[in-house]
Specification:
With 115 residues, the protein is an all-beta fold. The chain is 0% helix and 52% strand. It contains no helices and ten strands. Strand 6 and strand 7 (66-73) form a beta hairpin. 23% of the residues are buried.
Length: 115
């Protein structure tokens, strides 16, 4: 049985920091909640420094969201592989996340609430 997915707009300003550098800042972040999984934040593509991201060969499929393409973030030292993804042609029910990217927080990627 498919998990219920909820998407809501977040208030305030949010940022993505990769290897110490801010690569995204937005007042239009979305939070996607799917079943019991941890919430995932989506940032509008227009608010991301896309010059620092490169498509990778990785793809995944979600029956509810569609096909995801992955990105690596290019840093001074080495790329942070497959750390962001986008549903570029999402399922009809997920159109709110079109033109948005989500990021895997880890030791090199942080999501910050600035205000």
């Amino acid at each position: 049985m498919a998990q219920k997915i909820k998407i809501r707009a977040l208030s305030g300003t949010w940022a993505i920091r990769a290897a110490g550098a801010v690569i995204a800042e937005t007042r239009s972040a979305l939070e996607l909640i799917e079943g019991q999984s941890l919430p995932v934040m989506y940032f509008p593509r227009d608010d991301i420094a896309m010059a620092f991201l490169d498509y990778t060969q990785k793809t995944t499929h979600c029956p509810q969201k569609g096909d995801a393409r992955y990105f690596s973030i290019i840093t001074k030292n080495k790329p942070i592989e497959n750390v962001a993804w986008s549903y570029e042609t999402p399922a009809k029910e997920m159109l709110l996340i079109k033109q948005h990217l989500a990021f895997h927080p880890n030791e090199k990627i942080t999501i910050e609430h600035l205000e």
